[in-house]
Specification:
This protein has about 625 residues and is an alpha+beta fold. Helix content is about 50%, strand content about 20%. A hairpin with a 5-residue loop joins strand 6 and strand 7.
């Protein structure tokens, strides 16, 4: 404020000073003829006639001198005063004016008219001379400025005739062409370097020159090849200047915009990179305005909601519409934190899918522009995590039941043993011990499965590698399942009689037994199961084929995932889908592959491969 006040006072002082000087000049121009004429009259009165020049010439000179100030009113003042002076000199020395005498009036009027013409012509001439000098100075300034622009700021600049013949070039253009300015003048500009170095650039310039019209400017971007290895991006401007119909000319300039192009390319690359980062992100992202309307969203978030971006804009969706009322208070508190600290969250809420279902998410956000109050919100989809948690809860529930059942049986039989021992009746002991052994084995298998899952998830899964015959090993596994076949048959096929491999025999047996028990479980009564062993270069392939109902195509890609189950079998730990998951991890740890092929309604074939030698 103080600065502006000081500027205002300074401006007022300058305006006052300028007005005062203008008034002072006006009175000087107006009064100076009176002073000059008075001096002439006074001198003529007191000097002898022979000693003083003719007064009429002096009075005319006074008019000329005062008119040379360029101010007509100064000349007019001089005309009026000198006219009165000239009339005085026509009189006798008595000093009386005789304007009524025709002999005195006519010469006075003649002098007035003559002086008036002299004053007008002189002042007009001086004013024109001043304007001419001012115009000359402005023209010189413009010329110097034009020279600076063409010499320093423009890569290439040329003045040509309307057909492209070069009339004048700047320093930059002359440096580019061998032979300099002399080589350019008089030639067609498109026949000179750098335009003739490229057919495309040459034809573009020719077409532009041919199509240019009066008072028009053509502007386009091009690539000029300065040499075989050097090229620059330029902005070419062709302007037709037509001051009069007889002498039109063209101004052609090419400004280097290579840095601009590099910046644009870099900016575009960063924009694409940022866009790819946003849309490929595994986290859902949305941008909102101050009213929380969604202005942009990435693919992950749109997939969470089931919308397309066009639908989001059409419906003008906002954060309130996708967050159920139950969570509005949590959302509002988070936004308040974001406004206060710049970030907020995470909070666990649900968002509404297009079909009406609720998607569990983890929400956090940051403020992008505090002035416009625009936000970036991040959504982590918890759907799979929630499913896994439910599977874990289900696993714990079933596992608890499985543990409780054998423990109850073991406890009951121990009580029976205790009672029988008091009466010395030992004939039922073998039967009791068989039940106890079976239930303890079930508990052991259950605990082993739980331990395997724990080791896999904590990366503590270790192998005890040994060399053994895989053919003999698989045959023993087939014999082990004979008691549970219940009318089903297992056919063994092998293209090799023996094959030594390096692996963990206990873990490989676990895989084979799992595939065999699954095949038995899903085979019909009196069904057939085929076990094959094939030699494949540096690997051996073991496959188990059943002829049950098979696996539906949409379940094939999930068959080896944790907790996945084809048909839920109550009371069996295999019903949680842990067996195939553990088998996959065992084969993977041996650097092998496990696979399944199935045609729904015609059974399934599970197979796994093992390398003959383990990598150290």
């Amino acid at each position: 404020m103080e600065f502006q006040k000081a500027i205002k006072e300074k401006k007022e002082k300058l305006m006052f000073k300028s007005a005062f000087l203008n008034i002072l000049k006006f009175y000087i121009y107006l009064l100076s003829p009176i002073v000059t004429t008075s001096i002439i009259i006074f001198s003529r009165t007191h000097l002898e006639i022979g000693l003083y020049p003719a007064p009429f010439q002096l009075l005319t000179l006074v008019v000329i001198l005062h008119s040379m100030s360029g101010k007509f009113y100064a000349g007019l003042s001089a005309v009026i005063i000198t006219t009165l002076g000239s009339h005085y000199f026509l009189m006798q020395p008595s000093g009386t004016f005789k304007l009524t005498d025709f002999a005195y009036l006519v010469p006075t009027i003649e002098f007035f008219i003559q002086s008036l013409i002299i004053a007008y012509v002189t002042s007009k001439f001086i004013n024109n001379l001043k304007e001419l000098r001012k115009t000359s100075r402005n023209l010189e300034y413009a010329r110097q400025k034009f020279k600076y622009v063409t010499e320093e700021n423009t890569t290439i600049f040329a003045v040509t005739s309307t057909d492209g013949t070069v009339l004048e070039v700047n320093k930059a253009f002359s440096i580019l062409v061998p032979g300099g300015e002399n080589e350019l003048l008089g030639k067609k500009i498109y026949e000179c370097s750098p335009w003739n170095n490229s057919t495309g650039s040459k034809e573009h310039l020719i077409k532009t020159i041919e199509n240019i019209t009066d008072l028009k400017t053509s502007n386009y971007e091009d690539i000029l090849h300065l040499s075989e290895k050097t090229k620059i991006y330029v902005n070419v401007i062709v302007t037709l200047i037509n001051t009069d119909d007889s002498n039109p000319f063209l101004i052609i300039s090419a400004t280097d915009i290579s840095d601009k192009k590099k910046s644009e390319k870099s900016a575009k690359k960063e924009q694409v990179l940022f866009s790819n980062f946003i849309h490929s992100n595994i986290v859902g992202l949305i941008f909102t305005d101050s009213e929380r309307h969604i202005t942009n969203a990435n693919r992950k978030f749109l997939k969470m909601l089931g919308y397309k971006m066009s639908e989001v804009k059409e419906k003008n969706l906002d954060l309130i519409s996708v967050v159920p009322v139950t969570y509005h208070q949590q959302k509002s508190d988070t936004i308040k934190k974001i406004l206060k600290y710049g970030y907020g969250g995470p909070i666990e809420i649900e968002i509404a899918h297009k079909d009406g279902s609720l998607v569990p998410v983890l929400l956090s956000g940051i403020i992008v522009d505090p002035d416009e109050k625009s936000f970036l919100f991040l959504f982590v989809d918890l759907t799979e995590q929630k499913k896994l948690e439910r599977k874990k809860d289900e696993f714990i529930s079933i596992a608890s039941h499985e543990i409780k059942t054998p423990l109850t049986i073991i406890k009951g039989y121990l009580q029976l043993l205790n009672q029988k021992s008091t009466v010395n009746n030992y004939k039922d002991f073998p039967k009791y011990m068989s039940v106890l052994t079976r239930e303890v084995n079930k508990l052991t298998d259950l605990l082993n499965v739980m331990l395997d899952i724990s080791r896999i998830e904590t990366n503590k899964f270790k192998l005890n590698i040994k060399e053994f015959d895989i053919v003999d090993h698989v045959k023993k596994s087939i014999l082990a399942v004979n008691p549970i076949l219940k009318g089903r048959t297992v056919k063994f096929e092998s293209t090799i009689s023996d094959k030594l491999i390096e692996a963990d025999p206990n873990r490989i047996n676990q895989v084979t037994m799992n595939l065999l028990t699954n095949a038995i479980k899903h085979s019909p009564s009196k069904g057939k199961i085929i076990v094959r062993i094939e030699d494949e270069n540096d690997e051996v392939k073991i496959s188990v084929q059943d002829f049950g109902k098979g696996i539906h195509p949409e379940k094939l890609d999930k068959i080896f995932t944790k907790f996945f189950q084809i048909d839920k079998a109550k009371g069996n730990i295999e019903g949680l889908g842990l067996g195939l998951f553990i088998s996959k991890e065992i084969v993977k740890a041996h650097h092998g592959q496990i696979n399944v092929e199935s045609e729904f309604g015609k059974g399934a074939t599970f197979s796994y491969t093992l390398p003959l030698k383990q990598n150290s």
